[in-house]
Amino acid sequence: DGGITQSPKYLFRKEGQNVTLSCEQNLNHDAMYWYRQDPGQGLRLIYYSQIVNDFQKGDIAEGYSVSREKKESFPLTVTSAQKNPTAFYLCASKQQNTEAFFGQGTRLTVV
Amino acid sequence: DQQVKQNSPSLSVQEGRISILNCDYTNSMFDYFLWYKKYPAEGPTFLISISSIKDKNEDGRFTVFLNKSAKHLSLHIVPSQPGDSAVYFCAARGHGGSQGNLIFGKGTKLSVKP
Fold first, then answer.
1. 3-class SS at A36?
2. Percent of all residues in chain B with a pLDDT value above 70, rounded to a whole number
3. Distance (Å, whole) CA A10 – CA A19
4. Which of A78-87, B2-11, B33-42, B77-86 holds the top average pLDDT?
5. In the predicted model, what is the mean pLDDT of chain B?
6. How big, in percent rounded to 5, are the helix, strand and coil portions of chain A?
7. Using CA atoms, how far apart are residues B18 and B27, in angstroms rounded to an integer?
8. pLDDT at A98
9. Of the partner residues A96, A101, A104, the one whose CB lies closest to the CB of residue B100
10. Which of A18, A108, B7, B36 is 20 to 30 A from residue B60's alpha carbon, by CA?
11. Residue A88, Cβ neighbours under 10 Å: how many?
């Protein structure tokens, strides 16, 4: 079955550590996205990539980094520079004129 | 500056009645609008969309209306069912350097009471 998979579902990070969230899709979509959801804030765009080996900052990119070495994969690293990383992270993919398909999300908690 | 606004954070309706969720936008260049449904701790799922060249799109119990002059769209759910209880996000397709990107509202939490 085609789809988009995020792992892990739950992740705990100590302060000062970097962590990487995985996102894989087998939908053959060109574009991939990372969003962050906080209560009452909706979905805010962190980074996006419209093609392999290229990515752009979204609205809240500070403290995050990404790579797009393969079409299927768009990992997000939450660095120690992100001051408030506890949130629900959502990855999505889409083609140019279609709706976005979302993964099931990763809940990151700083302990 | 919010380009897509959902001004009602929550809505409660009785089972069997109509649910109307509203969304306003500011950018007249948006050409495509979508509604997503989201349950807690899950990713949003696509519900229904509408192109800016139309004013209505219907899919079963779900209908989306677009009023371009007012920069307003709404999602109607008739009849509402308890399983419809979720957060609903309105989204619009962006333009310019981020063409194809979706811009989301903050969501409206719908509660359908039996």
1. strand
2. 94
3. 12
4. B77-86
5. 92
6. 0, 55, 45
7. 29
8. 79
9. A96
10. B7
11. 18
- For chain A, what is the mean pLDDT? 92
Contact A103 B9 (CB under 8 A): no
Chain B positions touching A41 (Cβ under 8 A) are 106
Q: Are A97 and A25 in contact (CB under 8 A)?
A: no
Q: What is the average per-residue pLDDT within B76-103?
A: 85
- 3-state percent breakdown (helix, strand, coil) of chain B, nearest 5: 5, 55, 40
Distance between CA atoms of A21 and B73, rounded to whole angstroms?
A: 34
Alpha carbon distance B63, A23 (integer Å)? 32
pLDDT tens readout for residues A83-107? 899 999 999 999 877 789 999 999 9
A40 and A88 Cβ atoms separated by less than 8 Å: no
Q: What angle do CA A91, A94, A100 make, to 5 degrees?
A: 65
Per-residue pLDDT, A74:
98
